[in-house]
Amino acid sequence: MKNFQSIVMIILFSITSVFSQEKEILEKYGITVNTLQEGLKEGEQAYTFKAKDQNGETFDLKKALKKGPVVLNFYRGSWCPYCTKHLKNVQDSLSLIEATGATFIAVTPELADGNLELAKKKGFTFDIVEDSKLEIMNGYKVTFDVNEGYQEMLKKYERDLTKINAIKRATLPIPATYIISQDGTILKRHYDPNYKVRMSVKETLSVLENI
Prior knowledge:
Strand content: 15-25%
Domain Thioredoxin: 40-211
Number of strands: 9
Shape: globular
Oligomer: single chain
CATH superfamily of the largest domain: Glutaredoxin
Protein name: thioredoxin-dependent peroxiredoxin
CATH class of the largest domain: Alpha Beta
Mean pLDDT: 90
Largest sheet: 5 strands, mixed
Structural class: alpha/beta
GO biological process, one term: cell redox homeostasis
InterPro entries: AhpC/TSA (IPR000866), Peroxiredoxin_BCP/PrxQ (IPR050924), Thioredoxin-like_sf (IPR036249), Thioredoxin_domain (IPR013766)
Strand order of the largest sheet: 5-4-3-8-9
Helix content: 40-55%
GO cellular component, one term: cytoplasm
């Protein structure tokens, strides 16, 4: 009996230790752990939406899917160097993505003015839409509230999320990527709380070329 109790205690300690380590890592990435959503999964139906792009035109996911698959990317904002680097890689290979019949769309909580400025500065020709009420982010379950420590760090660099974001809240998406088939099924997703890790263009093209 004592041996059994000891084993149970060891297991419980291990689980608690792993959770504590995971929580610490997530908090390092600016995540308030109890607000983190788990993201839509592969095989589930994509959340459809209409939203204004950087040019004030309406992007309609349902209409885009009638033309071909859609690559949907969530990014934190123009202030994030990891986001802009990833989007630059996409732009450099955009012709290859579009050659598969696919559409690439980027979604951010940032104000539309910031999106337009970013597109002009970096030469982005794909649509960037402002998720002004977090409806798209919540639809794909990629939302989290930014913890106070990370907010204060960003403010030192004059990046106040309560001013940059359209909804005036310090809320961000996991920088996830979803590849959606024409019937609205999520074929592939990249979901990683580590904002330094993204779905590569090579992997994106591999999926698209095999649809």
